[in-house]
Amino acid sequence: MNATSPLRVVIGTAGHVDHGKTALVKALTGIDTDRLPEEKRRGITLEAGYAHLELPGVGTAGVVDVPGHERFLRAMVGAAFGVDVAVLCVAADEGPMPQTAEHLDVLRLLGVTSGVVALTKSDLLPGLGSDHRELLLLELRELLAGSFLEKAPIVEVSARTGQGLRELVETIAGAVKERIDAPRSEQGPLFLPLDRAFAVKGFGTVVTGTLFSGSLGPGDEVDLIGSGARIRGARVRGVQVHGGSVDRARAGQRTAANVAGIEVAQAPRGAALVPAGTLEATGGAQILDVELELLPWAARPLKDRTRLLAHIGTAQAQATVALIDRKELLPGERAVAQLRLGSKVAALSGLRFLVRGELGKPVEGAAPPPGRFTAASRAHASTLGGGRILAVGSRKRRKRESDVRALQALAGDDALAQAEALLLEAGHLGSSPQRLAAQGAFTFKAAGTALERLSQLGRAILLDRESRLYVHAGLLGRLTKKILVRLEEHAALGEVDPSIAKEELRQRSGAPPPRLFARALAQLAEAGDLRTDAERVRPASAPAPLGGPDASAQEKLAGILDSAGLSPPRTDELPAMIGESPHRTGALLKTLASAGRANKVSEELWFGSRPLHELRGKLLAHLAAHGSIDAQGFKELTGQSRKFTIPLAEWFDKERITLRVGDKRVLRKERER
After folding, report:
1. Cross-sheet strand order for the sheet of 85-91
2. Which of 31, 192, 441, 619 is paired with 39 by a 20 to 30 Å CA distance?
């Protein structure tokens, strides 16, 4: 590996105010991350700072230096998003403090699993007494117990003297190597939450952030959404990682992008760059399906519909927490829920989030968790919990079994169950691999594979091969039933013409997309449940209106066939019955067939469509009840002799309704779906 290559790993500092985070970053990287005049004057970090650290033999990693003061926790949370390896800074003279504990909670809730502990200002230890160091380490281990840093190395360092800096770099390098083998996915949708935007003379607006998913390169078209941003189809001029231009920035890298045609004010913190046209934020309040954890030291249970602040990526928004499977969430518990946001926020499935606020005073008589750093020191903390986003752009869910099952599927490990749940949520609009990856935690390839597998299992229908658009098979089934009901309602009005215009029927059936409606009509027509022409639809049992100069002869012939039921005259007997020549009678039969009024079952027999439709219903009911039918059963079903039953049975085979297996017939597999 090239020692100077930009790694797909971000290192982040954390810890109490004035515990030496910024001084340590400067000592390690040579970069002063305090860039604001106010930060220089006050001597504390107000906004996150950014640098990069060369790790010998490993590569160059991005570094995020976060504010430590509790008043700037929002800035800390936004900066900590995207951190892969944490450096928890604890000053040797003060030891763990309240903000140290809260920062540790924030890192864990944001999914950080690797890091080191830097015992800063260690040059002061010799003057603090013989027992100070031992007590300090005991306090530190108490704080870290049960956390992802429980077994992390503790390195004594001093930014002033340089003590321990080399050892710290080597320790960080070891933690970074563990993360290199499990980088963030660059196969998923582009998602770059913005933490800064500024103007560069001669170039225009530059935005920066940690690339959570996907990749970004010059020439890409992007949308800028969330936090009030409404930019569509902007072009990326150039991309940099650690100050150097690159062909593509990849997930896990600190990224700067020069975006053409936008002003700095149009790229607020909290917005995100996403692929053009694929991650539209929903209008109004956005709803997110989530898995939520309440911290064990929360003062009280979290009740359904509690209003809190949600931190999502680099954005913050008011949120109502809707619990779906319970009335309250106890401290230390985890549950599926929804965040109903008061403003549009860019989000992506798999993204971690935090909730902050107040739940009130502790319940009287409740026993707090033991230990200094799990009770009293966290009492001030505003961070209550967090979790991961399961799906974006959801509808409001209720406390009902179907919604609970859907959320549990999204929270589980079964990718096929997740895809099916999201496909159901997509409704009439359906899902393509791109849409599924944007809504759920899928790469484009995994989304395509899941949809294809659902189609093979008969649980999804490919609606558009070119765009690979699928709808759930159950949705199509419900639509076909609704169409039949609406068609029967119209026919029951007693109109002379029982047919209905296709567009009117579509509107009466809930106005599904035209492509989906056409697919439903085709399926029903193939099944013999209705008949269609270019503009109109009618029930299969309803005779088509006949017109033109031959209308009288056609009606006479159709009447003979319908009244004959399942024992019609032979074809050669029909000319004499209607007073026409054999050639003329053949032409009239073909016209009736085109109108859906008659069917040619064999060379000798034509049947009226109404008797055949009624027999088809009886046959399907028999097969549903008994599984198969033999020749004797078919004879009993029709009440006719072999002269009629044998041609009828063979006709149902030809129409792909039944399949002959030995001396019996069964329903074809495609009819069972």
Report:
1. 49-55, 59-65, 6-14, 85-91, 114-120, 154-156
2. 192
